[in-house]
Design goal:
Blueprint lengths: L1 E6 L6 E2 L6 E2 L9 H11 L4 E6 H4 L3 H11 L3 E6 L4 H15 L3 E5 H5 L1 H7 L5 E3 L4 H12 L11 E4 L5 E4 L14 H8 L16 E4 L2 E2 L9 H7 L4 E2 L2 H14 L5 E4 L8 H13 L6 E5 L5 H9 L2 E9 L3 H6 L8 H12 L3 E8 L6 H14 L3 E6 L7 H9 L28 H16 L2 H13 L1 H14 L23
Parallel strand pairs: 1-4, 1-5, 5-6, 6-7, 10-13, 13-14, 14-15, 15-16, 16-17
Antiparallel strand pairs: 2-3, 7-8, 8-9, 11-12
Helix pairs in contact: 1-7, 1-8, 10-11, 11-12, 15-17, 18-19
């Protein structure tokens, strides 16, 4: 069969697979990683695949349709996110009418709200729930006639002959991740022309994003990918297979800046990290990489990571308030260990990208200010401040509904009129706009510190790769430092703050 895997057109530079999908203020554009993993798995099963990333390719709907017309797909599978779901379903409707082939969606929102998505758009035939790799493959096998009953496909919502919607719940998570095709090979075959368009504001670019494992053992209430796709059991690839892929990437991607391990928490299993590092060192592989980490990595392992080529860790510090950290189930009681971890990272000559979030249960004007001062104390190499984005399928979304903190369930309101973050949450006297405004203030105060600017200037002068990242990222960021964000499109009415 011929299958199109589509990252649909929406806002330019819109990143669906970010943990907080939006247009960023740092010029970041995410790889469509999960979409690519699914495409590679389906292609390896003997099918012809087209992989289109409309935001990266700069394609509007008309140009996207032209690409599909050239391929003439027999099935279209599109990626989704909560902030873009109304747009995504509209694209599905257009493609269904034009090509008259089965349509499916996947991703975080599809996994969280499969039945709602099917009911919202009659032209949507299937909704993939959870990990898409084998479910997409089995859907294709069913359409090819290799699977006799759709009821034999776990993790799939479908439309019955009478138009009603039914579903089979997701089965066990994929245990043998080593059996999946390398996503980097899928990138190289289908998206190499876009390779240098993907840009991560905290990382050396161009970069490649892969997984060494899926699932996170921690239970942070707001984190959407473990709660909708990957689950809470950390499943790992064989360390040797990971390093084999690193060697492939270095050999096949020209001018590589670094590889980013986009595992929910790469450092969740210290033995796994250690094994990967030791093989890199043993093979004398010179490659730069970064990862998502938790602020609990010991000094000796940080030093080993540095020796193996690690450059930076992306760490969710979130809040300085012990009460807030407890309420979001961060598993960290206070900031003491995080401060010690950051000092150890600096001692190991590793950079840190810090993530800070406002608008969680327990947040007040005082805790927000405390968190900003905490960010300045930690002084990571880069930082992001964002309002709580409570997505369907997460405990944070359920809490917001039950506590009355959710302003609206209108998915248009997850972004402002330009595609940037806004929030549908208020906390006490703090309105959703107050939370967005505070993030703007925090960004200015953090990045415009003389000591920070001097450090970044020194880094840029000493390293050409860092210079490109700093100049491009800051060049975009500076346009937003004194701009007010959060305004809705004219046709979207601001919901009252007491809406349940």
């Amino acid at each position: 069969m011929r299958i199109t895997f589509l990252n649909p057109p929406f806002f330019p530079m819109f990143s669906r697979e970010s943990r907080s999908p939006c247009v960023t203020k740092s010029s970041t554009l995410y790889w469509p990683m999960f979409l690519s993993y699914a495409a590679g798995t389906v292609e390896a099963d003997g099918n012809e695949v087209q992989l289109i990333d409309s935001p990266a390719m700069g394609l509007d709907l008309e140009a996207t349709v032209a690409h599909l017309r050239d391929f003439s797909p027999e099935l279209i599978i599109a990626s989704t996110s909560t902030p873009s779901i109304l747009n995504d379903l509209s694209v599905i409707k257009t493609l269904k009418v034009m090509f008259n082939v089965p349509t499916a969606i996947m991703g975080t929102h599809a996994s969280a709200e499969p039945l709602e998505s099917m009911q919202m758009e009659p032209n949507l035939d299937y909704c993939i729930i959870g990990e898409a790799d084998y479910t997409a493959r089995n859907l294709v096998r069913y359409l090819r006639g290799d699977i006799s009953s759709i009821l034999d496909i776990a993790g799939l919502a479908f439309r019955k002959e009478d138009g009603s919607v039914d579903f089979q719940p997701e089965g066990p998570k994929i245990e043998n991740l080593t059996a999946l095709p390398w996503v980097s090979k899928t990138y190289h075959k289908h998206l190499y022309a876009c390779y240098k368009k993907y840009f991560y504001g905290a990382n050396l670019n161009p970069l490649i994003v892969i997984l060494t494992g899926r699932g996170c053992p921690h239970r942070c209430s707001y984190c959407v990918i473990p709660q909708t796709i990957n689950g809470h059991i950390f499943r790992k690839r064989e360390p040797q297979d990971v390093v084999n892929e690193l060697e492939y990437i270095k050999a096949n991607f020209e001018d590589l800046g670094e590889v980013f391990f986009e595992d929910d928490t790469f450092t969740a299993d210290h033995k796994h990290v250690r094994a990967i590092c030791e093989i890199i060192i043993e093979r004398k592989l010179k490659i730069t990489w970064s990862c998502n980490a938790r602020a609990d990595v010991p000094l000796d392992l940080l030093q080993l990571m540095k020796k193996a080529g690690c450059r930076e860790m992306c760490v969710g510090f979130e809040s300085a308030s012990p009460d807030v950290l407890e309420k979001i189930h961060k598993g960290i009681k206070d900031t003491t260990n995080a401060i010690a971890f950051t000092k150890n990272a600096r001692k190991s000559k590793l950079l840190v990208h810090g993530c800070f979030m406002v608008g969680n249960p327990g947040d007040t004007k005082d805790t927000l200010r405390l968190t900003l001062e905490y960010a300045k104390t930690l002084s990571p190499n880069t930082a992001q401040f964002y309002p709580i984005m409570a997505y369907p399928g997460t405990e944070a979304y359920k809490e917001a509904i039950e506590s009355g903190a959710l302003d609206s369930r209108d998915y248009k309101q997850w972004l402002d009129k330009d595609g940037y973050h806004r929030t549908t949450i208020h906390r006490g006297t703090l309105s959703s706009q107050d939370l967005v405004d505070f993030c703007d203030t925090a960004r200015r105060e953090f990045y415009l510190r003389p000591s920070y600017m001097m450090h970044q200037a020194k880094l840029a002068l000493c390293n050409g790769r860092e210079r490109y990242r700093i100049l491009r990222g800051f060049g975009t960021l500076v346009k937003h430092l004194f701009r007010k964000h959060g305004a809705l499109a004219p046709n979207v009415r601001q919901a009252p703050t007491n809406k349940q």
